[in-house]
Amino acid sequence: MHAYLEFEKPVADLEGKVQELRTLADQGEAVDVADEIERLETKAAQALSELYAKLTPWHKTLVARHPDRPHVSDYVNGLFTDFTPLAGDRAFGEDSAILGGLARFDGRPVAVFGHERGTDTQTRIKHNFGMARPEGYRKAIRIMDLAERFGLPVISLVDTAGAYPGVGAEERGQAEAIARSTEACLGLGVPNIALIIGEGGSGGAIAIATANKVLMLEHAIYSVISPEGAASILWRDSARAQDAATNMKITAQDMLRLGVVDAVVPEPTGGAHRQPDAVIASAGEAIREALQALEGLDAEAIREDRANKFLAIGRMV
Fold this sequence. Notes:
Elements: H1 9-26, H2 34-52, H3 57-64, H4 72-79, E1 81-85, E2 98-105, E3 108-115, H5 121-126, H6 134-150, E4 154-160, H7 167-171, H8 174-187, E5 192-201, H9 202-209, E6 213-217, E7 221-223, H10 227-234, H11 241-248, H12 252-257, E8 263-265, H13 276-293, H14 299-312
Parallel strand pairs: 3-4, 4-5, 5-6, 5-7, 6-8
Antiparallel strand pairs: 1-2, 2-3
């Protein structure tokens, strides 16, 4: 059974009934329930399709945060081979919120890193829910430096509510680390592709998403602050998060229209968590196309392409 979101209750009820009927059939009850199961499955699929055809920005926020949504480790396992993880920033220590290293994509050597949230209580604590500390961003810089040295394309996967705001992180230079990571992205002479797979929050996201091509899953979100945080600032009421989400223009469709991202990767009906393998395959194809678009460019042309992309955001035509 899936973990259902609050707006998916009609689907949850129907699929719950299907599960009950399947249980009866498995127990050998002398009742033919095949036709009823088929009818309910059709009705549930239709209800799910109707719900996801008219998701509000707040609904998309909930989908982007779904606990069963594929994580960075799933994309690394599904798209890359010969992955060799790298640990530590060579200055303070290791930050498991950033998972990264060297790998092969379609047989081609690349550098890959991203925010890992974890999948259960133990791993979420280990990975700090994907909220990186300064050493995490300095590790990303270290990986980018290696990529630059050896001419490897850089692929980053973004999924964070934001950089960790704890006292220790601030003492070790959180803002400076984010700025340096953003600077490293901008200065790369090799192609870099960023994919927002869930929640792209604040500077914690942009620190590794300043790329030649920025891609975004259909139900991901990308914003300078969380809807709850914006509501607390604007109205001093975090309960108005739904209003904030609507007004902030945080969806993939908004980002594409505003020129912040370059492409939206479609998700199956019901979100990435329902068919993770299909989403990962689609993401791989999008990354492949983005890399091909940058083939043949020298280092200076790659830097110019990236700079022009970000300078064009918000420009009035």
